[in-house]
Structure formats: C-alpha cells, structure tokens
Amino acid sequence: MATTASKRRSRFGVCCAHCDNELIAPEWSEYRNERQVHHVWHCWKCDCSFETIVDTKVTEDPTTGDNIFPSRLVA
Fold first, then answer.
1. What is the spatial distance between Cα 44 and Cα 33, in angstroms, rounded to a whole number?
2. Sign of CA dihedral 7, 41, 20, 1
3. How deeply is 73 buried, as exposed, middle or buried, from its count of CB atoms within 10 A (0-12, 13-18, 19+)?
4. Which end of the chain, N or C, is less packed with Cβ atoms under 10 Å?
5. Distance, CA of 16 to CA of 12 (rounded, Å)
6. Using one digit for the tens of pLDDT, what is the confidence trace for 23-62?
7. What is the rounded CA–CA span in Å between residue 60 and residue 18?
8. What pLDDT score was predicted for residue 56?
9. 8 Cβ partners below 8 Å, 6+ apart?
10. What is the pLDDT of residue 13?
11. 3-class DSSP assignment, residue 3
C-alpha cells in the first residue's frame, strides 16, 4: 500500500486512486502529530487500498485577533 495524492470530488471524501469511485469516509485514521492526520482508504468497488496524509496546520487570518481589536486604544 502506497501513500498517494488523491483527487477530491466532494468536501468530505476522496476518489479511489484506482477506479475513481467516490469514497465518503476513511476505513481508519490516526493523528501522526499535531499537524498531520493519516487516513487509510478502502474502495469496496475495486478492493483498492491507499493512504493519504492531511496537513491540519491552521493559517492565521489577518482579520482576526489583535489586528482588529488592539490591546491599547489611544483617543
């Protein structure tokens, strides 16, 4: 089983790496560290298994936090 890039067709799932069947949920998932989630997918249609790794790093939005509401206001 190899880790491969997959084409996303929907917001929640991926397409099978072999037959392009839409898969809704992984068969198994685990947190690898604070930034990555490892998924194992299994296609019931063609019996293909493959893995994906999702990077969960959240980028900060510059419109939130101290940029809008500074800690000190000067009148």
1. 29
2. positive
3. exposed
4. C
5. 13
6. 999 999 999 988 899 999 999 999 999 999 988 876 655 5
7. 36
8. 82
9. 14, 15
10. 78
11. strand
Three-state SS annotation for 11-62: CCCEECCCCCCEECCCCEEEECCCCEEEEEEECCCCCCEEEEEEECCCCCCC
Give the model's confidence band at 73: pLDDT under 50 very low, under 70 low, under 90 confident, else very high.
very low
Threshold 0.85, pTM exceeds: no
Are 20 and 5 contacting, i.e. CB atoms less than 8 angstroms apart? no
Residues ≥6 apart with Cβ < 8 Å to 12: 24, 25
- Is the confidence at residue 11, as pLDDT, over 70? no
